[in-house]
Amino acid sequence: MASIYRRLFNATVFAVCASASALVSAEGYPHQPIRLIVPFAAGGAVDQTARIISVALGEKLGQPVVIENKPGAGGSIGAAEVARSKPDGYTLMLALDTQAANYQIMKALRYDTFKSFDYLNLLVTTPQVLVTRGDLPVKNLEELIAYLKAHPGTTYGTSGVASAGHVNSAQMALARQLKTTHVPYKGAAPMITDLLGGHIDFAFAGVSVLLPHIQAGKVRAIAVGSSKRSALLPGVPTMSESIPGLEYPTWVGLAAPSGLPADVRRKIVSATAEVMRNPEIAKRFAQNGFDVVSSTPEEFKARLAKDSGILEDLIRRKVLVSEQL
After folding, report:
1. Which of 12, 138, 176, 185 could make an SS bond with 144 (beta carbons 3.0 to 4.6 A apart)?
2. How much is the pTM?
3. Structural domain of 87
């Protein structure tokens, strides 16, 4: 009987010590720098978002937030690294809208889109804008569509397969029966470089990354993929004015490996929400063409599921197809 009581006592002491240890660990978070994986090349919407929030988020959490760009395969290379990282709050990721698509178009992903990540906050959206290289002989959407019908195989670039730019281009092709050639890149920045160099003919990309080039007259803005005209481009019509319902914005959200300790998760979610409420942060986003969302984790997961459904429909219709299928 004494041995039974001794085992019960030891078990109780162990449980108390374990709970205390976990509490200390959570209360001590973070005690080292935090990695913020950007699964795209520097210069795009995801990278811009990282550079706007990283310092402020680090200040809220009490440790530096260090940005690491890991581009490739529509964001899935960086996402795979995050998925296999320890869920301790020291590895975070900024997910792009391609997160809703990669599992549908890529073979042998090394993670489960819905189970491998903890979706914390849908931070921002930015409308897509349709632009052409400066010397393409078109000035509006109808002229562009006429040109594309007369020149099948005209090339367009995107920041990756099944990115928002790819989706918008596919929807436009479906609505107007166009045959164009898709050129995917590892992010918006290298795609824009080729657009400026005349290597591709048109593109959809976020207002945030195209605005300086539009303002400089290096590319021509044809239409904006949002429900209303952009305050930054008031003279540019929306896509839906010509093609009703064509609206699929870029979004960027904060995610982590699945299995974060509850207290660590709460700290990250709370700190991120505070950063997104900061007027200076909101001003910087607005100046770059972003709309602040700052959602709950549940709202972020709902958006992921909604966009997954849109992409599934386009794939079924065979208008969103790639070599990676």
Report:
1. 138
2. 0.81
3. 29-125+249-316
